[in-house]
Write a structure and sequence with these properties.
Shape: globular
Largest sheet: 5 strands, antiparallel
Number of strands: 5
Structural class: alpha+beta
Distance between the termini: 28 Å
Radius of gyration: 15 Å
Number of helices: 6
Strand content: 15-25%
Strand order of the largest sheet: 1-2-3-4-5
Order of helices and strands: HEEEEEHHHHH
Length: 148
């Protein structure tokens, strides 16, 4: 069942290729609308929504899964340098693709520590106004854990 959203998710590795190459992350589709960038002990999941793309952070602490919705926390640091080479807006598809461009640029420019697998940022995140716990489906977790 291909539609605009599954097609964007299929294309997501193209947006994240530079990040994956530089930080040795494995990019893998975990569901029709979610793709994970998997590093050593963590995963960044990009979830495609109707008009947006979300960033979810997954890791294990004391063998317990921790899943946080981090898109707003990360986006708070994005600036005009992260909003370059955007597509002409108008269609829903371009809005989502622009979000992916901004996320990729913003992660590279502002969140290198996250991409390297560092977790020192999590305490600040938990104290922020953006702190939110997220849930993943069991089959999504299973696909991530195979590669962790």
């Amino acid at each position: 069942m291909e539609n605009i959203w599954t097609k964007i998710n299929d294309d997501l590795p193209l947006y994240m290729k530079y990040i994956c190459d530089k930080y040795e992350l494995v990019c893998t589709k975990i569901s029709p609308l979610k793709t994970a960038l998997i590093g050593k002990g963590f995963a960044l999941i990009i979830a495609i929504d109707r008009f947006d793309a979300k960033v979810i952070y997954f890791y294990k602490e004391n063998n317990e899964e921790k899943v946080f919705l981090c898109d707003n926390y990360f986006a708070e640091k994005y600036d005009s340098n992260d909003r370059i080479n955007l597509l002409e807006e108008g269609e829903c598809e371009n809005i989502i693709r622009n979000n992916l461009i901004i996320i990729a640029n913003g992660l590279m420019n502002k969140w290198e520590n996250v991409l390297k697998g560092q977790t020192d940022w999590i305490d600040k995140y938990k104290k922020s106004k953006w702190f939110a716990v997220e849930r993943l489906l069991p089959e999504e977790v299973k696909r991530i854990e195979i590669l962790l």
